[in-house]
Design goal:
438 residues; alpha+beta; Outer membrane efflux proteins (OEP); two-stranded parallel ribbon; 63% helix; elongated
């Protein structure tokens, strides 16, 4: 029965992975793939690109603004002016039209902001926002890496659980068969058969559960990697290969600290920009304009109006001194100051919290490794104890109840080992992530 069930489960696994094209041999392989395919990381990359163009747009406000103008006017009907007789020598009085039918104008005007604190601070805010988005990308990568590590190690954990459950099911199957034979011989009672069958069913249940949890973890990994359920993914890795840790690699700076730092810098620039609304601004202006008139629509050939263009130009310094605007700028400045103070407090809290978290990660990892060693030793000792009791039972020294209880204890200690292994893997990937430079 057990062999038939095992064949079915192995067949399911082989069908699910027979056409694998994407292969991961380590957690780092999965992280590298996520950098190019995870939708959260891709979206964060797009945000950094948009922030770069926003920065360039803010810098353009510091450059001179130059505009060229041109116009053409067709005076379809010139206005009439009543001129008294004798007002001008040789000009009869009456209704007279002044001007030309066609008028042309062209010009260039330029403006340079010599002093405008708000533009300067807006450019600084845009630059710091771009850096903030880069740090947000790093922070998003950290979160995605944690999610991927959870599913990757869950797959390996369930792989180990499946292996142990298979060993237990094989042992329980032989015990069940042996006790069933003895029951037919009349040497054991029906209660012993039920306990043996219970142990066998329990081992099978653990194997089935771990198998399908392994498949579920792989599907969850596909979702994180922007793959469809039909895409093939194969994990060629063992638990032993992934338990290696480079303990000498130092922790890198937490992206959460850098995120809070740039939020603090942006708040400071926003506060200064709000205060910049009270400062005067100074602009340099230059304008050049020229006009020409014609009686016919021939401004460049056969002119019948003016002999040429009439130019005019000027330059000026323009100062703007804010005096009063209903107090709105004052209250905006107060609000910006509070935002800055809040961001400073959040940065200090993030820095302290990160230090505590790092220390706890180290402590939890050391504890998890130590506990795992003990639970594995206990599990192995429990299995050895079961084998000794089995030998003594075959020799007529131990009772069948002792043998069945010893096997039940082994299954319990096996579950404790898997729980300890799960905790150690969580602490392991936390260490690995803190060693990454995002």
């Amino acid at each position: 029965m057990f062999k038939r069930l095992t064949s079915i489960i192995v067949l399911l696994a082989s069908v699910a992975t027979s056409d694998a094209q994407t292969v991961f041999r380590s957690l780092e392989d999965a992280w590298k793939y996520a950098d190019a395919h995870n939708i959260t990381i891709l979206t964060a990359k797009y945000e950094t690109e948009k922030a770069r163009y926003a920065r360039l747009a803010s810098y353009s406000a510091l450059l001179p603004q130059v505009n060229a103008t041109g116009s053409y006017t067709d005076n379809i009907q010139l206005p009439v002016t009543i001129v008294p007789a004798g007002l001008f020598p040789g000009v009869p009085g009456g209704a007279i039209s002044f001007g030309q039918q066609f008028a042309y104008a062209a010009g260039v005007n330029a403006q340079l902001n010599i002093l405008n604190l708000q533009n300067l601070y807006n450019a600084r805010i845009a630059r710091e926002t771009e850096e903030l988005d880069k740090v947000s990308l790093a922070n998003n990568k950290k979160t995605v890496y944690q999610q991927i590590a959870t599913q990757f190690y869950s797959y390996l954990l369930m792989q180990e659980a499946y292996r142990l459950a298979g060993q237990s099911a094989t042992t329980a199957d032989s015990v069940f068969e042996s006790i069933s034979n003895k029951f037919r011989e009349g040497t054991v009672n029906e209660g012993n058969v039920d306990v043996a069958k219970l142990n066998y069913e329990r081992a099978q249940q653990n194997q089935i559960t771990s198998q399908y949890q392994m498949l579920t973890a792989r599907n969850n990994l596909k979702a994180l990697l922007n793959m469809s359920v039909k895409d093939s993914l194969e994990i060629i890795s063992t638990l032993t290969d992934n338990l290696q840790l480079e303990s000498t690699t130092p922790f890198q700076q937490d992206p959460a600290i850098r995120l809070a730092d740039y939020q603090q810098k942006i708040s400071l620039s926003q506060y200064r920009a709000a205060n910049g609304a009270f400062a005067p601004s100074l602009n340099l202006l230059y304008n050049y304009a020229a006009q020409r008139y014609d009686k016919k629509f021939e401004p460049f050939d056969g002119a019948t109006g003016s002999a040429g263009w009439y130019p005019a130009q000027y330059w000026a310094l323009q100062a703007n001194i804010p005096l009063f605007s209903s107090g709105g700028r004052f209250f905006q400045s107060k609000k910006s100051k509070i935002n800055y103070q809040e961001s400073v407090a959040q940065y200090e809290n993030a820095r302290k919290q990160s230090e505590i978290n790092d220390e706890n990660i180290r402590l939890n990892y050391e504890k998890a490794v130590a506990v795992l060693v003990k639970t594995k030793d206990v599990m192995n000792l429990s299995f050895d104890n079961y084998k000794h009791i089995s030998y003594r039972y075959e020799g007529g020294i131990e009772s069948i109840e002792s043998r069945l209880n010893a096997f039940k204890d082994y299954i319990d200690y096996q579950n404790q080992y898997l729980n300890s292994l799960s905790d150690m893997l969580v602490q392991l990937y936390q260490i690995k992530i803190r060693q990454q430079s995002f």
